From TrEMBL:
Span of domain Acyl-CoA dehydrogenase/oxidase C-terminal: 238-384
PANTHER family: GLUTARYL-COA DEHYDROGENASE, MITOCHONDRIAL
One GO molecular-function entry: glutaryl-CoA dehydrogenase activity
Source organism of the structure: Micromonospora krabiensis
This protein's name: Glutaryl-CoA dehydrogenase
GO biological process: fatty acid beta-oxidation using acyl-CoA dehydrogenase; fatty-acyl-CoA biosynthetic process
Pfam families in the record: Acyl-CoA_dh_1 (PF00441), Acyl-CoA_dh_M (PF02770), Acyl-CoA_dh_N (PF02771)
Entry-linked SUPFAM superfamilies: Acyl-CoA dehydrogenase C-terminal domain-like (SSF47203), Acyl-CoA dehydrogenase NM domain-like (SSF56645)
Acyl-CoA dehydrogenase/oxidase N-terminal domain mapped to chain residues: 20-131
Amino acid sequence: MSQRPTAPLDLLDLDSSLDEEERQIRSVVRQVIDDRVRPHVAGWYEDGQVPARELAREFGKLGLLGMHLTGYGCAGASAVAYGLACLELEAGDSGVRSLVSVQGSLAMYAIWRYGSEEQKQRWLPSMATGEAIGCFGLTEPDHGSDPASMAARARRDGDDWVLTGGKMWITNAPIADVGVIWARTEDGVCGFAVPMDTPGVTAREIRHKMSLRASLTGEVVLDDVRLPADARLPEAVGLKAPLSCLTEARHGIVWGALGAARDCLETTLAYAGTRTQFGRPLAGFQLTQAKLADMAVELQKGYLLALHLGRLADAGRLRPEQVSVGKLNNVREALAIARQCRTILGANGISGEYPVMRHANNLESVLTYEGTSEIHQLVIGQRLTGISAFA
């Protein structure tokens, strides 16, 4: 007996958990991704190029850049609305979502939370419209998961600061107008709003990536970069400042990974329903249905987890280790879904005509950046046991 197919996220009627405004924001973002990203993203990925500035301006018109922040031209949307936007963005491509989340949850949030009023007025309005692009320089060539060992230094020279060092794997760096750069000082780790055209700053694009190819990634070199005293973010002292920015961005990843998983599963359901082998569609085989059912269950669970964390964030009660639970689970499961979908598509699963392998490759990076699975396991383990296993 045949029934009308159900979309993966309709299985548990999860839309009933959203209010009308949240559904409208999701619908708007989904439409712009359908119109502006899906027709082109396979080519961007294959070419390793993306019109990032053009996309940023379009997203700025929709209020997506720094949308969960308030004031300075930001939309002041809820954490759940921001999460739903990230889900739809990453359903298009992880690199597209990275453009938005690095801009809003890392660079803009750092200035919004830790910057002076002058810094906020200078940068945030133009970043909210996409006219100015930001990047976030924490990771270094030799220091990824251990930012406490960063080698970048900032020293006082009269009234100025002089920065030296390098940052690696920095999203948006090749086109950024401002970089939020973290460096060690005599007083601990501090943040600086660095105009990227400052003498001594060099941004080199990292090429030949096998993942996140529709995203601009760079290495930033700081060669005795002289900055005025007011370049320092006055409220950002200590490693907790950049880590709090990562918590903001990780919340978007919790949602975003679900978008990649949903796109894979929807693609696979459509394919399995029309691809005929041994006289029947692939979707009619028990083994295929078992795979589809397991993937749909994990997608629902991940969505419910993301929604719970979003509601906690909106209530002001979200803790970093809770975000670690979401990032660990949802990215891990999204990657498993992408890989399983590839098996159902067979050889077509590796074709750029379908998004599955592109999502799988992207999720390999998402699994690593802004906290590897192992780091999030240790964060959760520390909360459970009260014992730090980092050192």
